[in-house]
């Protein structure tokens, strides 16, 4: 398929050096989407006042984005394999930029929620294709390093997001938080048009499994809603049980259809590969752990150690910064030695970090805290690039879009489950401690003024320690699963997966 634009001319796009231009273009999208995820969290309290609405309504500004992103990632990956990854990635820049502009123009919470859905569609088009474009551009012996650089850029963007957001809100206004994406998006659109490789459509034109997409999106939507609302409504409430029942039915329909249709949305035979299946599972587990820690630590800093908001924000930065430093190195080493060593070591270190957090008390040394959070960031940085590279290397070239969409979908689910399930474990353990001490009607340990200070702290730490134990065990399990994978050359893995798919 040819382009109307002069670049990338086959002479340029076939040059070995051109792959770095492709990576830089992908990094623009990675920066924009990662920055937006963390920067928007800062503006939530301001929007509550601006729109004169409740926090519950404003929470849907974040929820609508995450829900839309999660349910559309597999579909966008499939469409990219069918119609061209470069085309859909460039469309992602356009849609995300337009969505950001609409967000900035919002005059009500409802308008903002709709605008965030548009923005999430653009982010989904970017995320579903980013790793696939890198995999397509780089040879197997350089893929880990390239994916590591992408991970480093995303980690730095997430780390500086709250800082940048605070400056923009205080100096310009909350709308600038969204308008800042417009120049980045315009630059990314132009770069994608000029640099990304020509679209290559498959020789055999396949149909889009719209029914499968509908079943999967509906099932995931109910699953995410159930976990998101479970803590507030109660896990045995009628609404939550209905959500779970619908999720079970629609996801079951999706699996049944995928085995029957000649052109599935997600070829489930991909999961016959241990590397692909375990890579996605452990990837979800790693994000579960990461965001569970990022969710709970601010409560510990502010309510137990009495740190201020500014110091709390600063203390969370070592995690993404350590990831940013380690990720490129981890990717480079995995290109030479394989993914098994780096992924299992990374999860082992993360387990050690969570185990160290178990030992925290009501008084902690600041440097010790920082060291433990840095260790977690190092573990995540060691794990993520090799794991992503192994997943993409185990997928046939014609299914890289689907593989990339699944990879990011599992990470999104890990984020959601990590926050919601850890919140349930924490509050359940906290309530159990309070009940044993005779406080039957206290819904939260810091909501009852008649609770003794020592009891408050012990109840909080009782829940906190249990969560960290669970996270340490989850990391240890992920380390064992990663260590059990075979370290084969990525091109050989992809070829074997392709032959397996062709053979049915």
State the oligomer. Answer: single chain
User: What string gives the helices and strands in order?
Assistant: HHHHHHHHHHHHHHHHHH
CATH topology of the largest domain: Growth Hormone, Chain: A
Overall shape: it is globular
- Indicate how many domains the architecture comprises: 3
Rg computed from alpha carbons, rounded to a whole number of angstroms:
23 Å
Task: Tell me the name of the CATH class of the largest domain.
Answer: Mainly Alpha
Helix content: over 70%
Assign the CATH architecture of the largest domain: Up-down Bundle
DSSP summary, beta strand count: 0
Written account of the structure:
The protein is mainly alpha-helical. The protein folds into three domains: 1-202, MFS general substrate transporter like domains (Growth Hormone, Chain: A, Up-down Bundle); 209-264; 270-504, MFS general substrate transporter like domains (Growth Hormone, Chain: A), CATH 1.20.1250.20. It is 80% helix and 0% strand. It has 18 helices and no strands. The longest helix is centred in the C-terminal third of the chain and has 37 residues, at 400-436. It is globular and about 70 Å long. The chain starts with 9 loop residues before the first helix and ends with a helix.
What structural keywords apply?
Growth Hormone, Chain: A; 3 domains; disordered N terminus; 18 helices; globular; 504 residues; mainly alpha; disordered C terminus
Summarize the structure.
With 504 residues, this protein is an all-alpha fold. The protein has helices at 10-13, 18-50, 55-83, 85-104, 109-137, 140-171, 176-179, 181-195, 210-233, 238-260, 274-304, 309-316, 318-337, 339-358, 366-393, 400-436, 453-483, 490-502.
């Amino acid at each position: 398929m040819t382009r109307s634009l002069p670049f990338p001319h086959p002479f340029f796009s076939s040059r070995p050096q051109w792959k770095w231009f492709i990576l830089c273009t992908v990094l623009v999208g990675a920066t924009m989407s990662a920055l937006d995820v963390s920067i928007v969290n800062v503006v939530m309290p301001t929007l509550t006042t601006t729109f004169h609405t409740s926090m519950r309504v404003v929470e849907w500004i974040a929820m609508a984005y995450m829900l839309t992103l999660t349910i559309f990632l597999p579909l966008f990956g499939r469409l990219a394999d069918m119609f061209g990854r470069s085309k859909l990635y460039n469309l992602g820049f356009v849609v995300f930029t337009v969505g950001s502009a609409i967000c900035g123009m919002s005059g009500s919470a409802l308008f903002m929620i709709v605008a965030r859905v548009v923005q999430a569609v653009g982010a989904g088009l970017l995320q579903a294709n980013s790793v696939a474009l890198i995999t397509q551009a780089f040879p197997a012996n350089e893929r880990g390093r390239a994916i590591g650089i992408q991970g480093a850029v995303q980690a730095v963007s997430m780390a500086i997001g709250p800082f940048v957001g605070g400056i923009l809100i205080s100096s310009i206004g909350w709308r600038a938080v969204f308008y800042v994406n417009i120049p980045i998006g315009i630059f990314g659109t132009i770069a994608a048009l000029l640099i990304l490789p020509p679209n290559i459509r498959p020789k055999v034109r396949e149909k889009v499994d719209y029914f499968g997409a509908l079943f999967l999106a509906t099932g995931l939507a109910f699953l995410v809603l159930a976990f998101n609302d479970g803590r507030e409504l109660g896990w045995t409430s009628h609404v939550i049980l209905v959500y779970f029942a619908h999720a079970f039915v629609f996801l079951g329909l999706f699996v049944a259809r995928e085995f029957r249709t000649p052109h599935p949305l997600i070829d489930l035979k991909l999961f016959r590969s241990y590397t692909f299946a375990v890579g996605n599972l452990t990837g979800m587990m790693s994000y579960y752990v990461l965001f569970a820690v990022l969710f709970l630590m601010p409560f510990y800093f502010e309510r137990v150690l009495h740190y201020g908001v500014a110091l709390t924000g600063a203390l969370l930065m070592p995690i993404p910064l350590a990831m940013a430093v380690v990720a490129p190195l981890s990717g480079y080493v995995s290109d030479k030695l394989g993914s098994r060593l780096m992924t299992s070591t990374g999860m082992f270190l993360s387990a050690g970090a969570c185990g160290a957090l178990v030992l925290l008390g009501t008084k902690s040394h600041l440097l010790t805290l920082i060291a433990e959070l840095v260790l977690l960031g190092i573990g995540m940085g060691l794990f993520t690039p090799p794991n992503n590279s192994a997943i993409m290397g185990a997928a046939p070239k014609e299914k890289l879009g689907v593989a990339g969409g699944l990879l990011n979908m599992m990470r999104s689910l890990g984020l959601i489950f990590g926050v919601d399930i850890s919140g349930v474990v924490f509050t359940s353990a906290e309530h159990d401690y309070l009940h044993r001490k005779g406080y039957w009607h206290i819904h939260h340990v810091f909501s009852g003024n008649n609770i003794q200070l020592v009891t408050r702290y012990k109840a909080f730490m009782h829940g906190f320690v249990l969560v960290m134990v669970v996270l340490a065990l989850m990391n240890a399990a992920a380390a064992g699963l990663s260590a059990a994978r075979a370290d084969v050359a990525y091109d050989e893995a992809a070829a074997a997966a392709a032959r397996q798919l062709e053979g049915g």
